[in-house]
Amino acid sequence: MSPLAPSTRGSRLALLVVGLCWLAVLFDGLDMFIYGSVLPHLLETKTFGLTPDQAGDLGSYATFGMLIGALTAGTVADRIGRKKLMVACVTLFSLASGVCALADSVAVFGLGRTVAGIGLGGLLPTAISMVSDYAPRGRGAIVIGLLMTAHHAGGILSAYVAKWLIDPVGWRAAFWVCVLPLLFAPVLARFLPESLSFLVAKGRTEEARALAARYDVELPAAKGDRQGAADRWTNLVGLFRGGEWVQTLLYWLASFGGLLLVYGVATWLPTLMRAEGYALGSALTFVVVFNLGGIVGMLVAGRAADRFGAPRISAVWFALTAAGVFLLSVHMPTAVTMTVVFLTGVFLNSAQTMIYATVSIGSEPGNRATAVGWTSGMGRFGAVFGPWLGGQLLAAGNGDWGFTAFALAGVSSMVFIGIAALRDGWRNAAESAPQKLVGTH
Description:
Layout: H1 11-44, H2 52-80, H3 82-102, H4 106-134, H5 140-165, H6 171-177, H7 185-191, H8 196-201, H9 205-215, H10 229-238, H11 244-275, H12 280-308, H13 310-327, H14 334-362, H15 368-395, H16 401-439
Helix pairs in contact: 1-2, 1-3, 1-4, 1-5, 1-11, 2-3, 2-4, 2-15, 3-4, 3-6, 3-7, 4-5, 5-6, 5-12, 11-12, 11-14, 11-15, 11-16, 12-13, 12-14, 13-14, 13-16, 14-15, 15-16
């Protein structure tokens, strides 16, 4: 069989896998953003006697669940397979949304959001792994970027669900919509193929070979897809050997600020815009515009990073994000505010993605998964802190400082990733200097 071009090789299977994973991540985004979309209504009607600080706590429950889901997803997927884990995650966050819809107290609602977060946190990294397995050669980055647009499409959908249902039906209807992905779980179970890497690692080579032949894709080599606990520990320790500990901490701190900003804004944008004097309908429209910007940003950032370097783009993107978020604290004409929200969405979401790209590119191949995974995991603590911080500021009557606080988080991430990029540049220059001297002799 003659080699196929990277753009067409395995395109049938890539289309199937990406399509199914895209829908799963769409539902992930819907469930993630729905709380922020209904939150202004919950606060105005004092549902459950909800106060701003309690609302911030509830927002953090979901992100804490996501932290658990993200950190355990790899281990669980190694045991049961990525396909089964994706089906389980969709089922889990769908059922948990039903708990929220039926909740009669803050405690029950919080339990539902925490359990939903576990499913949400486990789904996204697993979906990324799935599409990476089946992406045609030379198209991995584009395919992952396309997948990530689904998360923001879910955010857009959440705003429309809230706008269409809250007034005529009530906030519980919005969470009942988030139960509907439960009907998608059997579709995933029936049509999504299992990860080829998982099949090979488990010794199910005949099954993997038949699947690869059916869709004309290469069979992965039988190599160390599964690491033992000792190997994982060795890789983690490697992130701190020599001077690497400084670089590792800089990446972790940048990721912490980035995800604090992402999830803080995602949770509180409609409420903070209401506090700035905008009507509820306009505040929810800002969620749509913000996520449209996120879709554009995901498609633009990768190309910019390929040309100018991921760390440089990440630092510039965070600076622009901080400026945009700070401007949202100023009441401007609606058209100007919409433009600022759109541009903030463009830069905010992809700035964090560029941190992962920076870590991935700068890591040794054998240690890459550990480096990226722990950078993401440490950042998840920022995702927990962001919604809580917004609630505390509003509860203290300092809602005007909400956007300023999130802007400062963007500035901190810009500084940390910028320092990391400079240190990496100096190190590369020092390593290449002797080689240049040898070359002149």
